[in-house]
Fold this sequence. Notes:
5 helices, five-stranded parallel beta sheet, about 20% strand, alpha/beta, Rossmann fold
Amino acid sequence: MSKILIADDEPSLRLLVKATLSANKSFELLEAFDGTEALNKAQKELPDLILLDVMMPGLSGFEVCERLKNDPKTKNIVIIMLTAKGQQSDRDWAISVGTDYFLTKPFSPIELFNLIEKILIKGGKEAKATNQE
């Protein structure tokens, strides 16, 4: 079973993502409501993938990602950055701290589901979202 951490301060977004991903019974879903909780849960639970919002109370998604990618214990966790900040400078920053994929809000739940299935089930990393428009 693949473990996915959904880290976003918006309860409605966490609910949408949980509803989208619950169709696949092989996903164990965890939640975090701010950056500090996301970092702590990631370090404790070692999820296979993190859906990480950029703008959260406490630590930003950029800070969480950088800390996780610099830690040998968590550096291989796949991180999909979900953000309303879609400027090229935000993408560049996300890439510089180690983000594996980048999706701009609003995003298609189907697109998110397909990307996660491709990563976790099919093991594909050929189409990185950091390079998508």
